Amino acid sequence: MLAALEANDATDHPLPVQVHAGFGDADLFMPHADPGYLKPLIERFRETPWVLLHCYPFVREAGWLAHVYSNVYFDLSLTIPHVARPDEALREALELAPVSKLLYASDAARTPELYYLAAKWWREALAEVLSDEPEPADAEEAARRILRGNALELYGLAASQDHFG
């Protein structure tokens, strides 16, 4: 694994590395799923973009890593459709992390209804959290970045974003 990370980090355009953090799989041991354990790898491979997936209950930790390291991004997939108060999880995510580091994702892999519910609850939570913005245009731009723009930039799709509507 380290050889692959070294090769990736040495390229002109390193590929993002996605890491499951927090809950999601039945075989994990939750205390070991804290994304803070990735700190040494994030520091060693500074050119590699790291994307922390799910992040619950470590939302603040993921937000802190995204705040401190320019190469860390995160999503709240699985968090938003499974927690009782998605707007609170989103507020935690944005306490430290800039909106440019948070990505929308549903990760609705098991239950078809979760695709719809995740999108609905994400939008509702964003509307609630971003309503605190003094300027509606700032809130709209933040929502666009989180729901679409950040992923397009991170995964190198920004140049072709016109094809996506």
Written description of the protein model:
With 165 residues, the chain is α/β, with parallel strands linked by helices. It has seven helices and four strands; from the N terminus they run αβαβαβααβαα. The chain has one domain: Metal-dependent hydrolases (TIM Barrel). 44% of the residues lie in helices and 10% in strands. Strands 1-2-3-4 form a four-stranded parallel beta sheet. Strand 1 (17-21), helix 2 (39-44) and strand 2 form a beta-alpha-beta unit. Helix 3 runs parallel beside helix 5 (86-93), helix 5 (86-93) crosses helix 6 and helix 6 (113-130) packs across helix 7 (136-154).
Strand content: 5-15%
Number of domains: 1
Note the total helix count.
7
From the spread of the alpha carbons, the general shape counts as globular
Query: What is the mean pLDDT?
Result: 91
Q: Architecture in CATH? A: Alpha-Beta Barrel
Largest sheet: 4 strands, parallel
